[in-house]
Design a protein that fits this description.
Length: about 500
């Protein structure tokens, strides 16, 4: 079933209104429900899950430093949209099939409100996970202006819950950013990019088995999910009509597994102004941008003097990355279309500033602890890929316990064939470098022998990050200060199929 491209307009998620707001705090309620939604005009409506009856969920906009309380409410049915593999840790028969917990990705937040994978809850909070602490989460929003997103994080079924539609944008604003006169209002648009596969009847397809089925299991987890259709903001291959002026786009890769290398078929520059954790020091002109799952990038695209042109946003990242197949240029090699067809409604006075904000480098001299952590690929009893961090499963004793206010460097030693987007909760980090090393020697002798020089982060990564591409056969070094909260957090691979099985570890920030 080949769907026509660029026949449906890009939807823009609404801004969520708070239930209560005064000078002290803001309060929201967010319901999770099942509903049907048109994802393409040539398809029957698809049954999806979403926040506030929308997929993606509504955009939550807050100010830096604003105290925000959110009650996340599970009103989903008892039956899951997709088949569950009960052999996956945290998803055994002894827990309800449908359970949720929400994580604001990139948030600076107390641990009880972080969306810990075992803090799940069911409809009406009837059943809750062992680490459930409160019904109403508190967000202190101690970040600078940045593009965050909220999504499900339930242990053992995160891949299914997000694929069903449980994701939305969470934007933090501040006056310093407003003063830069970036494109704003209707000229600032979030773009959530995902891949899906559809059944003939328009329902979402998620595989029950890997390519080599596991005969003794009815449903088995798969090593990665690669969809054959690209959606932006919940619409298949949409188009957006734009004026001949500058626009700001907040790009988010919310796919389960797929990486995107984004370009414009006009060959023109995009001007990147921000990474995961906020503004860069100065904009960079780039012709392509790499986004691993969960990574964000803010770009300004200038459509001035392009009246009447159609510009296609393309993707040429192999899937799985980096060793997989190149995308078909006629299908998943295309993301969406911009049509420069709207008349200019007013003079474009927005700017691409020469300088934005200082991004002070964390000094390596301030480091109190260095950790060497491996990314591993082993086999389980069914012969399936079992992805681990530091060769430890989720429920092994906690081994990473940074002290509040201290600075650490983590060496992410990737001995697998995949690039893994590694995400740490609570904090933003900076990428120091990546370096090739001799994997065979490391596996035999546990010695890192570098085989090339250290490569600095790409220009597009030289800001605050919460997710980093740890490439195969490389050591990726990141540096960060732990705080401002103590408590139980996690770090994991953001390929959702890896995270669920079992490339996720708790860590604890101690006093």
């Amino acid at each position: 079933m080949i769907l026509s491209k660029f026949v449906d307009e890009l939807p823009i998620p609404p801004i969520l209104k708070p239930r209560w707001k005064d000078q002290f705090y803001t309060y929201y309620e967010v319901n999770m429900t099942e509903f049907s939604q048109s994802l393409h005009s040539q398809l029957n409506n698809s049954t999806v899950w979403g926040y506030e009856n929308g997929y993606p969920g509504p955009t939550i906009e807050v100010e830096s430093g604003e105290k925000v309380f959110i009650k996340w409410i599970n009103n989903l049915p008892d039956k899951h949209l997709f088949p569950i593999d009960y052999t996956v840790h945290g998803a055994h028969w002894d827990v309800p099939d449908v359970r949720t917990v929400v994580h604001v990705h990139g948030a600076c937040v107390e641990w009880e409100s972080d969306g810990y994978p075992e803090a799940w809850f069911t409809k009406g909070f009837k059943q809750v996970g062992p680490y459930f602490r409160k019904q109403i989460y508190r967000y202190d929003n101690c970040n600078h202006a940045c593009t965050l997103w909220y999504h499900d994080h339930t242990i053992g079924i995160t891949r299914l819950n997000i694929y069903a539609g449980l994701a939305g944008f969470y934007l933090i604003r501040e006056n310093r950013e407003r003063s830069l006169n970036l494109p704003s209002g209707k000229y600032e648009i979030p773009l959530m990019i995902q891949d899906k596969t559809f059944n003939e009847d328009g329902s979402l397809y998620y595989p029950k088995q890997p390519e080599k089925p596991i005969p003794e299991l009815e449903t088995s987890i798969i090593p990665e999910f690669i969809g054959d259709t690209i959606l932006v903001n919940g619409k298949v291959w949409p188009y957006l009509e734009v004026e001949p002026r500058k626009y700001r786009f907040r790009l988010l890769n919310a796919s389960n597994t797929r990486f995107y290398r984004i370009k414009l078929d006009s060959g023109q520059f995009m001007y990147q102004i921000a990474t995961d954790g906020g503004l860069l020091e100065y904009p960079i002109g780039i012709r392509e941008i790499m986004l691993a799952p969960a990574e964000r990038a803010d770009v300004i695209i200038d459509f001035t003097n392009l009246e009447g042109k159609n510009i296609i946003m393309t993707n040429d990242a192999p899937a799985p990355f980096p060793g997989g197949d190149k995308p078909d240029p006629l299908t998943v090699g295309q993301v969406m279309q911009f049509r420069v067809t709207l008349p200019l409604s007013s003079v474009d006075t927005s700017t691409i500033p020469a300088y934005m904000v200082p991004v002070p480098k964390i000094k390596e001299q301030s480091v109190t602890r260095i950790r060497y952590l491996t990314l591993n690929d082993t086999m389980d009893q069914y012969g399936r890929e079992w992805m681990l961090l530091d060769n430890k499963p989720w429920d092994a004793p906690i081994s990473e316990n940074p002290k509040l206010g201290t600075t650490e460097i983590w060496y992410l030693i990737n001995v697998t064939d995949d690039s893994h987007p590694i995400h740490l909760h609570l904090i933003d980090f900076q990428i120091l470098d990546r370096r090739n090393f001799d994997v065979d020697k490391f596996n035999k002798e546990k010695v890192i022998e570098y085989t090339g020089p250290a490569m600095p982060p790409e220009p597009q990564e030289r800001g605050w990050k919460d997710t980093v591409r740890a490439n195969p056969k490389q050591v990726t070094r990141i540096i960060m200060e732990f705080g401002p909260f103590t408590g139980l957090y996690i770090w994991h691979c953001h390929i959702l199929e890896h995270e669920d099985y079992e490339m996720m570890r708790p860590y604890i920030v101690i006093r």
